[in-house]
Design a protein that fits this description.
Number of helices: 8
Shape: globular
Strand content: 5-15%
CATH superfamily: Uracil-DNA glycosylase-like domain
Strand order of the largest sheet: 3-2-5-6
CATH architecture: 3-Layer(aba) Sandwich
Oligomer: single chain
Largest sheet: 4 strands, parallel
Distance between the termini: 34 Å
């Protein structure tokens, strides 16, 4: 049984006995034994471990983990310190600098501070084969992360959902609670960032929304 050591434990306790998850787990056991899989098995659920249900202020939904050596560690768009920030994250930092004046460039790419500050960095698919993007699509992770989104949607306390790109936007149908704010934009990858990610101003909009609800803003610096 997966342990999150926070309120997700009770909320997701039945998830791991569902038929789809048992099939997914069987698949993952085989994959980790026979393939190079990212992130490491103890990092798969880091997003939920680092950001409890009640503490979520903002949800940033990614696609699947980075597939390069040493990059993925269980938080969407994040890489561990010492690993060069990938192009999508570089573009995120550019938009943050233009939007709220916080300059994270030239530091590192680890977003743990965001996670600890209430930003749930959740990929749609939580594992991937090395150098094979989207290789674990359709194996069951989409159901798991949709169930997480549906639980978040039920919460009365407001939060912001940032949906970047088609995979993230596909989750919008599960966000129906008018208490929450949905922000949509193109994906921050170099292929699409100029088609609507740059200039989206999601970071200032998120903080304005949280302020309007009497909640603490998000510090978008990484230090």
């Amino acid at each position: 049984m997966v342990k999150f050591e926070n309120d997700w434990d009770d909320l997701l306790k039945d998830e791991f006995t569902k038929e789809y998850y048992l099939k997914l787990r069987k698949f993952l056991v085989s994959e980790y034994k026979t393939q190079r899989i990212f992130p490491g098995m103890y990092d798969i659920f880091n997003a939920l471990k680092m950001t409890s249900y009640n503490d979520v202020k903002c949800v940033i939904i990614g696609q699947d983990p980075y597939h390069g050596e040493g990059q993925a560690h269980g938080l969407s768009f994040s890489v561990r310190k010492g690993i060069a920030p990938p192009p999508s994250l570089v573009n995120i930092f550019k938009e943050i600098r233009e939007d709220v004046g916080v300059d994270n460039t030239g530091k590192h790419g680890e977003l743990t501070k965001w996670a600890q500050n209430g930003v749930l960095l959740l990929n749609s698919v939580l594992t991937v084969r090395a150098n094979q993007p989207r290789s674990h699509r359709g194996m069951g992770w989409e159901q798991f992360t949709t169930d997480v989104i549906e639980l978040l949607n039920l919460r009365e306390k407001p939060m912001v959902f940032m949906l970047w790109g088609s995979d993230a936007k596909a989750k919008q149908q599960f966000i129906t609670n008018p208490n929450h704010l949905i922000l949509r934009a193109a994906h921050p990858s170099p292929l699409s960032a100029y088609n609507g990610f740059f200039g989206c101003r999601h970071f200032s909009q998120a903080n304005a929304f949280l302020r309007s609800k009497g909640m603490e803003e998000i510090d978008w610096s990484i230090d």
